[in-house]
Write a structure and sequence with these properties.
DNA-bd_dom_put_sf, about 140 residues, single chain, mainly alpha, Multidrug-efflux Transporter Regulator, Chain: A, Domain 2, two-stranded antiparallel sheet
Length: about 140
């Protein structure tokens, strides 16, 4: 998360961002006008570019100059990449939630076993085998 915040912090003025991206400042203005980049603005209206903006301009240059993609195509590619990034973020969050629920369920099973002094078994798909659930401090009969 810290690295992402750093990449998105708008710190470069247009001339510096253009030099870092290897383009003319007017190119950045054109890309902004066409909706390809969205630099931040200061209270006075000055454009501020982040490292992510600079990386995006480099990608635009690569797609247009090396791959022959027109700007409408580039805009589509960029939107698809944004959707992919959002999907990856949601997947990461969902996996973390699944792990949290799994830990909570295991804890609840252990507590139930302790409270009842009984053996709890887990049935796992697709296997038809029943495996004893490992509990801490289970009494043997």
């Amino acid at each position: 998360m810290v690295a992402r915040v750093r990449r998105e912090t708008a710190v470069y003025i247009i001339s510096v961002a253009a030099e870092l991206a290897g383009v003319h400042p007017q190119t950045l203005r054109t890309y902004e006008r066409k909706g390809l980049i969205r630099p931040s603005r200061t209270a006075g209206g000055t454009r501020r570019y982040s490292e992510r903006d600079v990386e995006r301009v480099r990608l635009i240059q690569e797609l247009t100059q090396e791959e022959g993609v027109n700007l409408a195509g580039v805009l589509r590619v960029l939107r698809l990449e944004e959707e992919l990034e959002e999907t990856r973020e949601r997947l990461t969050e969902a996996l973390a939630e699944v792990e949290r629920v799994r830990r909570d369920a295991e804890y609840a099973l252990r507590e139930q076993a302790r409270a009842r002094s009984a053996e709890i078994v887990l049935y796992r798909e697709p296997s038809t085998e029943i495996e004893p659930h490992r509990t801490v401090g289970r009494r043997r009969r």
